[in-house]
Automatic annotation (TrEMBL):
Its EC number is 3.1.3.1. SMART domains: alkPPc (SM00098). It holds the Pfam family Alk_phosphatase. The lineage of its organism: Eukaryota, Metazoa, Chordata, Craniata, Vertebrata. Its cofactor is Mg(2+); Zn(2+). One of its GO terms (cellular component) is plasma membrane. It is found in: Cell membrane. InterPro entries: Alkaline_phosphatase, Alkaline_phosphatase_core_sf. The keyword Metal-binding applies. This is alkaline phosphatase. Keywords: Glycoprotein, GPI-anchor, Lipoprotein, Magnesium, Membrane, Metal-binding, Zinc. GO terms for molecular function: alkaline phosphatase activity; metal ion binding.
Length: 449
């Protein structure tokens, strides 16, 4: 049931919003903003790509409301940081050979500018998954492949020999069979480089004295934000802040790629995990905006694919995102507003389903229509939010492979070094892509490895 505070908030909003003038004022303000918009035609000094793994439109909407409700509001009127980006497009996420996309082929599209077959990474569609002989000669590179890399995320075990005991969990060891400590190899190849595996050492890193930073905070995937130990692991927002403070020392510009693990919560059929990840993802976007300038930094927020997550049913204003509909289904039982088309939440036994109640349990499984051990990706388009230099290039409905082309053009890097865009006054010129710095923050690091 709604608390007295929530009811009071709802009452205030309903009273104010019942007057037509409320909406006239909002409409005029939005129209004024639209009429004042002018495209930024300068060259982008910096590029930031935020990739909400599995962040479909329904996830964005539910996360927006959840964010507001976490702040004590009704939620629907809340605004995400990504909502404030002035330019918006839709991305068609299908793979060359499959209607429903996967994370590997979509990564090839939004990083390399080429659509690929399902289950292939860094390969054109000419390369067939089951025929290794077709791989050679069909490799494709990221448009930003010449940038310099460092990494924050999980995946410690993949960097150490299998006899090396994990520093945090004594029951874990490395998984490498070749006896190679890749962290040591990496550190020896860089100047002013640091490796950290816990929050204390991460916080102690002085950005002014560090050019390369590798932070691996879990043996495999990073923990969900709901389960993260803040004394041991930094948040996504904290990692983004550290990355930008290191990267912005490069007068030639930088490229920052940030990925979240919304996807994992949806696959598990646990909407609370997915949506709280999305809220933290948006916090990171907001912090990045505070640390950079829209005048010289192109920021793009998108998703690789959607999920079969739906958010609807009958509910009053301010109803908890994970709550139940106020009406009953035809079987006389309640149902949650958040549901999955398939997945582990299938609960029909002997032709009937259990009655649903509102729950705050983190592990709660939303009901699913089709029984699967893991919920699937969706096939519909996802959003692209953009702001900064040349952000107006993101418009209409585009192939997902268009994203890196537009970003590369905005920064005048290969294959668009002849873009003829001028730098914003006050920023130094970008000599060549070789001077571009790259930082990658991968929350579901183990999946990529």
């Amino acid at each position: 049931m709604a608390t007295q505070q929530t009811l009071l908030i709802i009452g205030i909003f309903v009273l104010e919003e019942q007057h037509p003038n409320f909406w006239y004022v909002k409409g005029k303000e939005a129209l004024h903003t639209s009429l004042s918009m002018k495209p930024n035609l300068h060259r982008a000094k910096n590029l930031i790509l935020f990739l909400g793994d599995g962040m479909g439109i329904s996830t964005v909407t539910a996360a927006r409301i959840m964010k507001g409700q976490m702040e004590g509001k009704t939620g629907e009127e809340s605004v995400l940081a990504m909502d404030t980006f002035p330019h918006l497009a839709l991305s068609k996420t299908y793979n060359v050979d499959q209607q429903m996309p996967d994370s590997a082929a979509t990564a090839t599209a939004y990083h390399c500018g080429v659509k690929a077959n399902y289950g292939t990474l860094g390969l054109s569609a000419a390369a067939r998954r089951k025929d290794c002989s077709s791989v050679k000669g069909n490799e494709v590179k990221s448009i930003l492949h010449q940038a310099k890399m460092v990494i924050l995320g999980g995946g410690r075990q993949y960097m150490f020999p299998n006899e090396t005991v994990d520093p945090e969990y004594s029951t874990f060891t490395g998984s490498r069979q070749d006896k190679t400590n890749l962290v040591d190899v990496w550190l020896r190849s860089k100047n002013n480089a640091k490796y950290v595996w816990n929050k204390k050492d991460f916080d102690a890193v002085k950005e002014g004295n560090t050019d390369y930073l590798m932070g691996l905070f879990e043996p495999k995937d990073t923990r969900y934000e709901l389960e993260r130990d803040p004394s041991m692991d930094p948040s996504l927002t904290e990692m983004v802040e550290k990355a930008i403070k290191i990267l912005r020392k490069n007068s030639k510009g930088f490229y920052l790629f940030v990925e979240d693990k919304i996807d994992h919560g949806h696959h598990a059929g646990q909407a609370k995990y997915a949506l709280t990840e999305a809220v933290e993802f948006d916090r990171a976007i907001a912090r990045a905006a505070e640390l950079t300038s829209e005048l010289d930094t192109l920021s793009v927020v998108t998703a690789d694919h959607s999920h079969v997550f739906s958010f609807g049913g009958y509910s009053y204003r301010g109803n908890p995102v994970l709550g139940v509909s106020y009406s009953k289904a035809e079987d006389g039982k309640s149902f949650t507003n958040a549901l999955y088309g398939n997945g582990p939440g299938y609960q029909i036994a002997n032709g009937t389903r259990p009655d649903m109640n509102a729950t705050s349990s983190d592990e709660y499984l939303q009901q699913a229509a089709v029984p699967l051990d893991s919920e699937t990706h969706g096939s519909e388009d996802v959003a692209i939010f953009a702001k900064g230099p040349m952000a107006h290039l993101f418009h209409g409905v585009q192939e997902q492979s268009y994203i890196p082309h537009a970003m590369a053009y905005a920064a005048c890097i290969e294959p668009y070094t002849d873009c003829q865009l001028e730098n914003y006054v006050g920023t130094e010129s970008i000599q060549t892509p070789l001077n571009f710095s790259l930082f990658v923050i991968l929350q579901p690091f183990a999946k990529i490895i």
